[in-house]
Amino acid sequence: MNTDKSRVIRGNFAPASVRILPGETAVEKLADDSWDIDLEETKRRVRQRRWKEHIHEEAVEKEFHQRRSNGQLLSAAEAGAVILMTFCLLAACVFYLSGLAREHSIASAIQKKESEYAKLVEDNNVLASSLEGKIDHQEILRYVTEELGMHYPRWDQVLEYGKSEEARLLETDCIPLK
Asked: According to the per-residue pLDDT averaged within each range, which of 3-7, 101-105, 126-130, 131-135 is highest?
């Protein structure tokens, strides 16, 4: 320990154990002798940290040069990890491409069904228009009135219902049976 009680302060900051009141600065606290930091102890800690970093850097560099001289750039675990990641990436690509192919086949099937539907609607419209011109409504009226004996209902035979659309399903219950 340094008996000189040399103190180090950086900026306006103080250790967490020191309480600085509002309006005070760390310099005032330092002058107040409420806390001391030994300069030699701080220098020793900095040297230790730098030495550890230097040793670590040397070890990493030594390992790199050793691998390079052996021709081995990757360890077995690193090579295994690279192979595993490559396999996973390849599997993801295959899965993605199969999804695209499935989507394309579904889209083409939908397009085919839509074209079939459009053709059926067109054929149906052609048949409906050809039938419309062939129906003779006067002949149908003559056949049902003369040969089948049907006639128009009288005014007292017509029943009108004042119900809503939902109640029309139940109107068969209201028709009197004779």
From this structure: 101-105
Look at 32 and 111; give whichever has higher pLDDT.
111
Helices and strands, number each (H, E), in the chain = 4, 0
Residue 7 burial (CB < 10 Å; 0-12/13-18/19+)?
middle
Quote the pTM value: 0.35
What sign does the dihedral 16-17-21-26 (CA atoms) show?
negative
Rounded CA separation 175/178 (Å) = 10
**Amino acid identity for residue 146 in this structure:** E
Cα 48–Cα 53–Cα 58 angle in degrees, nearest 5: 125
* Coil/strand/helix, residue 80: helix
Phi then psi for residue 2, to 5 deg, are: -90, 125
